[in-house]
């Protein structure tokens, strides 16, 4: 994946660095990560992934099809998994940003938009402040409002403030105000933002 991403950066950035309408270079929309499951558990990549988590973080990975639980032992597995995916993802994005800046020293980078639908990936987001120029959050009203009425309308402000406080960077909030998962945002939802 990284090899392809770097090749595409080398192709795209020189082509677009001088266009007047370029704002900044963006990454992935709403990245999500899950432990390998099914046939992937037995693949070479899956086996290496599980071994790396155990070796680096002292915990086995959770199963990809694990059910929600309050068991502390399972929580430690998820903590190890999220630390590993966060560490790896930040390393990939740091290298990509470094290449973009090398090819376009004036270019601004937003590594990706972070989904705020019914939670967010528990990574150390302070580390994104070390290399990102802009942080994008992608909060939804709908799903949260269906699950816990009153919560969804504050999702946008919460996500924006959280990421601003953690990264110290400019935040671009992508307002998701459309019918989704059984909820149609109301004018008062927009006023709250």
Written overview of the protein:
The chain has helices at residues 2-16, 44-57, 72-103, 142-147, 152-167, 187-192, and strands spanning 25-29, 109-116, 134-139, 170-173. It is globular, with a radius of gyration of 19 Å. The mean pLDDT is 89. It has a four-stranded parallel beta sheet with strand order 1-2-3-4. The chain has six helices and four strands; from the N terminus they run αβααββααβα. The chain has 193 residues and is an alpha/beta fold. Helices cover 46% and strands 12% of the residues. α1 packs parallel to α3 and α2 crosses α3.
Helicity, in percent?
40-55%
Shape, please?
Answer: globular
The major beta sheet can be summarized as: 4 strands, parallel
How is the quaternary structure best described?
single chain
Q: Uncertain segments of ≥5 residues (pLDDT<50)? A: none
Calculate the terminal CA-CA distance, rounded to whole Å. Answer: 37 Å
Number of strands: 4
In round numbers, the mean pLDDT is: 89
What are the secondary-structure elements, in order, as H or E?
A: HEHHEEHHEH
SS class: alpha/beta
Beta fraction: 5-15%
Task: Record the strand order, biggest sheet.
Answer: 1-2-3-4
| Count of helical stretches | 6
Radius of gyration, CA atoms, in whole angstroms: 19 Å
């Amino acid at each position: 994946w990284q090899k392809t991403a770097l090749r595409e950066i080398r192709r795209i950035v020189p082509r677009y660095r001088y266009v007047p309408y370029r704002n900044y270079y963006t990454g992935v929309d709403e990245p999500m990560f899950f432990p390998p499951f099914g046939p992937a558990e037995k693949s070479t990549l899956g086996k290496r992934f599980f071994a790396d988590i155990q070796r680096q973080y002292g915990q086995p990975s959770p199963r990809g099809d694990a059910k929600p639980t309050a068991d502390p032992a399972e929580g430690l597995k998820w903590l190890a998994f999220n630390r590993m995916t966060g560490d790896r993802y930040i390393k990939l994005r740091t290298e990509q940003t470094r290449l973009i800046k090398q090819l376009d020293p004036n270019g601004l980078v937003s590594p990706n938009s972070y989904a705020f639908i019914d939670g967010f990936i528990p990574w150390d987001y302070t580390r994104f402040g070390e290399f990102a120029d802009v942080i994008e959050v992608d909060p939804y009203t709908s799903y949260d409002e269906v699950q816990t009425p009153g919560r969804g309308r504050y999702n946008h402000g919460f996500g924006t403030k959280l990421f601003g406080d953690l990264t110290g960077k400019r935040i671009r909030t992508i307002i998701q105000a459309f019918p989704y998962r059984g909820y149609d945002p109301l004018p008062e939802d927009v006023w709250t933002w």
